[in-house]
Amino acid sequence: MEGLDEILGGGFVPGSCVTISGGPGSGKSTLCSQFLYHGYKELGENGVYVTCTESPEEIKNNFRDHGWDIDEAIRKGKIKILDMRPVLATESGLITRNEALFEGETIPFSVVAKGTLDEIRRSHARRVVLDSITTIAMQYSGEFQVRQGLLGLVQGLSNEDCVSLLIVETIGAKNIIPAEWALSHGVVLLNYTSEAAEVIRSIQVVKMRRTAHDQAVYGMEVSKDGIVVHTDVKV
Ligand SMILES: Nc1ncnc2c1ncn2[C@@H]1O[C@H](COP(=O)(O)OP(=O)(O)O)[C@@H](O)[C@H]1O
Ligand SMILES: [Mg+2]
Predict the structure, then answer these.
(1) From CA 1, how far away is CA 43, in angstroms rounded?
(2) Which one of 2, 59, 111, 205 has the minimum C-beta count within 10 Å?
(3) Rounded distance from Cα 22 to ligand 2 centre (Å)
(4) Ligand 1 pocket test, candidate residues 30, 70, 132, 167, most atoms within 8 A of CB
(5) pLDDT, tens digit (0-9, with 9 covering 90-100), for 160-216
(6) Tens-digit pLDDT profile for residues 5-38
């Protein structure tokens, strides 16, 4: 992805797990969809989008809204959308826990991790998106459980020959370093502020292990064509 690759000092390192952090509407899902689509369209790389919050149809619409032909990518077996929503609404109107996602689990996140890793291997994926870690973490009561689960997930993903983007919702928690940040190899922070009627979006690479990256906060836009990073505008 132009712009972002530039501030990353070349792009994401293969085998890395990178947290994409930001508040609601900051552009996390768009950035990750673009990452998968770009990989498919420009580099012929396979991708997996694990959704824990929106339905697969909603995820497809996020691609379609930007003119990215997700249906073609799915048809060709290049991008796979994996539905891992922990809670599902049934046709009768009842809301049920998706028991299959927790079956026989002794370590938190095990089933989600295994399902994701199985799919990565099956489809020889080079790019993976998990939308979002926050939703999975919310299914567990304790901080310890979440850390344990994350550690296993990050370890599993690191063993694969792919770049994994882990989406994390941050809501006004500027001083808190969430476990996701500490355990992943890198952190990209998306932010926006409003000034009068204008929304000012920004992107910052806060952490990236093994990369001489740029730490400045750059201007960013979410347009019809997706995320545009303005490497000439520091905010
Ligand atoms: N096709 C589009 N054209 C312009 N702006 C868009 C388009 N699609 C989404 N956006 C803007 O991008 C924002 C970020 O969306 P999204 O990536 O879903 O955020 P997040 O996943 O962080 O909640 C939306 O709230 C909207 O303002
Ligand atoms: Mg989203």
Answers:
(1) 11
(2) 2
(3) 10
(4) 30
(5) 999 999 999 987 655 566 777 778 899 999 998 888 888 899 999 998 988 888 889
(6) 888 888 898 889 999 999 999 999 999 999 999 9
**What domains are there in the chain, each with its CATH number?**
13-189 (3.40.50.300)
* 17/218 Cα distance (integer angstroms): 22
Ligand nearest to C-alpha 190: 1
In terms of DSSP bridges, do strands 47-51 and 79-83 run parallel, antiparallel, or are they unpaired? Answer: parallel
Measured in Å, residue 213 CA sits from the centre of ligand 1 at: 26
Paired tokens of 166: 């882990």
Residue 181 buriedness (CB in 10 A; 0-12 / 13-18 / 19+):
middle
Residue whose CA lies nearest to ligand 1 atom number 9: 222
Please report the atom of ligand 1 found closest to the CA of residue 65. 1
Order of all β-strands in the sheet with 17-22: 79-83, 47-51, 127-131, 163-169, 17-22, 186-195, 198-208, 217-223, 226-234
